[in-house]
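Okay, can you check this protein?
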Amino acid sequence: MTTSTELATVTTRVPARLDRLPWSRFHWRIVIGLGTVWILDGLEVTIVGAVAARMTEPGSGISLTSADIGTAAAIYVAGACFGALLFGRLTDRFGRKKLFMVTLGIYILATVATAFSQDAWYLFLARFITGMGIGGEYAAINSAIDELIPARNRGQVDLAINGSYWVGAALGGLVSLVLLDTHLLAPNLGWRLAFGLGGVLGLGIMLVRRHVPESPRWLFIHGREGEAERIVDRIEAEVRAETNQELPEPGEAITIRQRDVIPFTEIARVAVQRYPRRAILGLALFVGQAFLYNAIVFDLGTVLSGFFGVGSSSVPYFLAIFAVANFLGPLFLGRLFDTIGRKPMIAGTYFGSAAVAVALAVLLITGSLTAWSFFALISVTFFVASAGASSAYLTVSEVFPMETRALSISLFFSVGTAVGGITGPLLFGNFIHSGHTGLVALGFLIGAAAMALGGLAEVFFGVRAEQQSLENIARPLTAGEAEADWRNEPSPEAVRERARPEGVRQAARERERRIA
């Protein structure tokens, strides 16, 4: 296979050929090979939260305090932010496939290394590197998925894949019951197996991921249009053999001027100068969902046990049900993002979850909630909010040019997680520690306000991207350059115009001015 990168101005139908494909086994391979990593992320975070208390007990094989556990969680988030920025830039530079293999490999090695922790410093280092791998996955995976899935299915598939995090969370809650059972496993072994389990599952995903091709969209922009065409030829042949039908004619072609390297400064200018409204939109969506999610998810068990008397041994069951509700939201509502549309559904899920959170806060203040009624309202809130949170990733992946896609995802993920994902748990944790129900209710009101701001941003700045080609939503930078090159070439009409006498040309310009 050639990897020649002779750069030129080329016209291609690769995007249109990918978007007209019917759903097939190829697309299921994309979903399994790329999307299932979020199950790993959910499994990782939930199991770590469940086994954290065990790691602070005598006989655990590692000497940690509760403060060390909090520090490890913060370091994991910091690693995810750093990894997203680092690998997001590299994904746009070196390709989707190289980076989603590298980031998964980093995750596997780091999470297995965590299982051998003996000291706090080693644990912190391993958690930081694990976070780097997961953060890099967010950028590489969402970019590749959106560029390989047909436009009419993109919203539903993207939301379901991002929502699959909660499948892992549910599994993590249930698996932790076995791993923490001292009748089955020694106290210094169960938590180590929890980390090792993530590495084993990651290896299984890597075996499937080897068969996922590089994004043809990325290839033709970087001077490898021949390789892009061959990949699409193979995909089309596979789909024809599966369906026994000829494919419809592809839509319009796109002309781009190929670029091997696009400077970081040029990419940064895109968000600031060309798409400032979309930049505000992405930031508002990510901060809102990061604040609400991290504030509640990290502290839900504490609220249940501290304010509603739920025993610590029962908390994993509640967390598993909560995770199922979160997964069902994107699964059931995802199709509506492609049919009803992005703007009404994204705004609706943000406003809807904010409204239920406000009702929950009011009932908390009045003391009208039992453990089960509180949990039911929380589940409804996050059934709706989960679809909205997943749509934040979908939005920033769609509304910026292809050359900046991975970096855009990583930038908004990092900023949103740093702003909302750190302040949320800190603020809400202090409210819970106070022991006052009114302060806990205030935490829910602040989370509702953050989600409502995201909904307002969608109303004013949202983009109608449903069933649209990515190139129509945000024209590639290189396509604009190709058009500029074409405009700079004198047309035959322009050559004839310059040959006419100046007086005739001036009279013609005056006539055109009057007509205008």
Q: What stands out?
A: Residues 484-499 have pLDDT under 50 and may be disordered. The chain has two domains: 1-246+256-261, 262-476. The radius of gyration is 26 Å.
